[in-house]
């Protein structure tokens, strides 16, 4: 999906939630958040929902029934895959998001839907984790497009180690950092 298509789909979702009398606040990371905030320009397959914001962050998996039903209707109306609103990343709540994550969110209103988008700083964390965990490709490209500083990469690396503290992952993470120009990555 392109940025305008993401906005259109979220607007339609908000309209359906308005009709249902079921307002929701979601927290979005990944490619859709990068696009909506104008940080990266590339298509994305889905909108990654890391949490529902409701007196704190709570799991988005499974999507609450009114949200799931409205998302299905948008999928049909827009010709999107049924899982275009993807709660898969919500598993990250289990190990914790970067400190200060909620305070850095950028909110956009789409009628009865408020989407909170992860900041550039937090996206660097998520993209570094994905790059180290899954390899280069779009995660490395997104990370490079964000032009992280050495300090931002080291902060992201420290958080990434909380997601996977294994010695094997530490080596993979150090290699990813070296590819990004952090020569003393072995300190992570």
Low-confidence stretches: none
Q: Please report which band the strand proportion falls in: under 5%, 5-15%, 15-25%, 25-35%, 35-45% or over 45%.
A: 5-15%
| Mean pLDDT figure | 95
Give the biggest beta sheet: 6 strands, mixed
Which structural class do you get from the secondary structure elements?
Answer: alpha/beta
Number of DSSP helical runs: 7
**How many discrete domains?**
2
Distance between the termini: 35 Å
Shape: elongated
Report Rg. 17 Å
Helix content: 40-55%
Could you tell me the number of beta strands?
6
H/E element sequence: HEHEEHEEEHHHH
Give a structural overview.
With 188 residues, the protein is an alpha/beta fold. The protein has two domains: 3-118, no CATH class; 121-180, no CATH class. Helices cover 47% and strands 14% of the residues. It has helices spanning 3-20, 30-36, 65-78, 120-134, 138-145, 150-163, 167-179; strands at residues 24-29, 47-53, 57-58, 85-86, 106-110, 113-117. Strands 1, 2, 3, 4, 5 and 6 form a six-stranded mixed sheet that branches. Helix 1 packs across helix 3 and helix 4 (120-134) crosses helix 6. The chain is elongated. The model has no long low-confidence stretch (mean pLDDT 95).
